[in-house]
Amino acid sequence: MSKCIALIGYMCAGKTIIGRDLAKAIGRRFYDLDWYIEERYHKKIAAMFEDEGEAYFRDIESRMLREVAAFEDIVLSCGGGTPCFMENMDFMNEVAETIYLKASPRTLCDHVKMSRGRRPLLEGKSPEELESYIAAQLEQRSPFYEQARHIINIDVLDSFSKINFVVNEIQRRLAAAETATGFNG
Questions:
Q1: What is the model's pTM?
Q2: Is 21 known to sit in a ligand binding site?
């Protein structure tokens, strides 16, 4: 069995687009944890937050993470908060090759503005409030994110060629890790 590759980072960091491209490049299946949860529970995550609250969602998220991480030969895009709850980061580092897609609050704010998805934690905030909120959340979440085996700065993501650059950088680092540790990715 080949180890799962798990992409982590703040919402709108590019985990899904990079994860899809990475999976295609290395011949693996791609899973987005949020989409997986929505399919399994037949409910949007925003609705789970509204109807049952964050604690309910985080419990489901943790259980579904453990389910998906057992799949063979996958690239997994995790939700922005996934590493920060229920000892999920420790679990991911045990079973996956973890990659933190790191970005500045400004980059993330720009990505959020371009995003079409509904972001329950960010709704109703002015641009200034949004960047301030993202910066504060990054400060809280960084101790978890920084535990990833690989950290890749994605502040450069503004074109498809740069997405390819990041995918190639991830492949290079995974190959180096395989050589160093015998990881079969």
A1: 0.91
A2: no
